[in-house]
TrEMBL record:
<dbReference type="GO" id="GO:0004129">
    <property type="term" value="F:cytochrome-c oxidase activity"/>
</dbReference>
<keyword id="KW-0679">Respiratory chain</keyword>
<keyword id="KW-0812">Transmembrane</keyword>
<dbReference type="InterPro" id="IPR001505">
    <property type="entry name" value="Copper_CuA"/>
</dbReference>
<dbReference type="GO" id="GO:0005507">
    <property type="term" value="F:copper ion binding"/>
</dbReference>
<keyword id="KW-0472">Membrane</keyword>
<comment type="similarity">
    <text>Belongs to the cytochrome c oxidase subunit 2 family.</text>
</comment>
<keyword id="KW-0813">Transport</keyword>
<dbReference type="GO" id="GO:0016491">
    <property type="term" value="F:oxidoreductase activity"/>
</dbReference>
<keyword id="KW-0999">Mitochondrion inner membrane</keyword>
<keyword id="KW-0479">Metal-binding</keyword>
<keyword id="KW-0249">Electron transport</keyword>
<dbReference type="InterPro" id="IPR014222">
    <property type="entry name" value="Cyt_c_oxidase_su2"/>
</dbReference>
<feature type="domain" description="Cytochrome oxidase subunit II copper A binding">
    <location>
        <begin position="92"/>
        <end position="225"/>
    </location>
</feature>
<keyword id="KW-1133">Transmembrane helix</keyword>
<dbReference type="InterPro" id="IPR036257">
    <property type="entry name" value="Cyt_c_oxidase_su2_TM_sf"/>
</dbReference>
<comment type="function">
    <text>Component of the cytochrome c oxidase, the last enzyme in the mitochondrial electron transport chain which drives oxidative phosphorylation. The respiratory chain contains 3 multisubunit complexes succinate dehydrogenase (complex II, CII), ubiquinol-cytochrome c oxidoreductase (cytochrome b-c1 complex, complex III, CIII) and cytochrome c oxidase (complex IV, CIV), that cooperate to transfer electrons derived from NADH and succinate to molecular oxygen, creating an electrochemical gradient over the inner membrane that drives transmembrane transport and the ATP synthase.</text>
</comment>
Length: 230
């Protein structure tokens, strides 16, 4: 999860987020090189007293500064489109979960089970135990098996919400009357935090998302226990 004074993105917990991190570094390096080159030209033009007559009117330079930006844009666009299609790809999910946004909590329904669903509310500050995070912890976590394709169906019951977990590279709008879907694979066990990312009313800041990835055996034990309690 994010920490104080963090400058970069969160550590990736899914293959798609790893691709997004690599693309971020790729694009940032291109921007850095362009900025350095432009700054160097500005400094040279301001500081020098000499004038090169071949730079004042040159077809070759005009060709270069027309083609070069086009090549740079292609180098950015191609990997961007590749990741865009990867994020939309949903192949044979092992588990489907429906996440419904409410004012101001989330409810989860495991559609592959007959009667497995629950509401997820933020834990109030006075009820937190040592080790839990303020404004991020919930009374019920969305538990998923690690290294398995998970499909999430996202919708809302009242107003616009947004289901977002940065470490998994997932962010999807929850729109009333519309069912959106996304997929992710958790590459390692852990607890991953997110929050509603669409202004949805007075308590918008108080409807966190907690995804807990566990080994398959632990997930089966958890689901059996939840079905017994239901």
């Amino acid at each position: 999860m994010a920490h104080a004074a963090q400058l970069g993105l969160q550590d990736a917990a899914s293959p798609v987020m790893e691709e997004l991190l690599h693309f971020h570094d790729h694009a940032l390096m291109i921007v850095f090189l362009i900025s350095t080159f432009v700054l160097y030209i500005i400094v040279c033009m301001v500081s020098t007293k000499l004038t090169n007559k071949f730079i004042l009117d040159s077809q070759e330079i005009e060709i270069v500064w027309t083609i070069l930006p086009a090549v740079i844009l292609i180098l950015i666009a191609l990997p961007s489109l590749r990741i865009l299609y990867l994020m939309d790809e949903i192949n044979d999910p092992h588990l489907t979960i429906k996440a419904m946004g409410h004012q101001w909590y989330w409810s989860y329904e495991y559609t592959d089970y007959q009667d497995l669903g629950f509401d997820s509310y933020m834990v109030p500050t006075q009820d937190l135990i040592p080790g839990q995070f303020r404004l991020l912890e919930t009374d019920h976590r969305m538990v998923v098996p690690m290294e398995s394709p998970i499909r999430v169906l996202v919708s809302a019951e009242d107003v616009l919400h947004s289901w977002a977990v940065p470490a998994l590279g997932v962010k999807l709008d929850a729109v009333p009357g519309r069912l959106n879907q996304t997929a992710f694979i958790t590459a390692r066990p852990g607890v991953f935090y997110g929050q509603c990312s669409e202004i949805c009313g007075a308590n918008h800041s108080f409807m966190p998302i907690v995804v807990e990835a566990v080994p398959l055996k632990h997930f089966e034990d958890w689901s059996a226990l939840m079905l017994e309690d239901a």
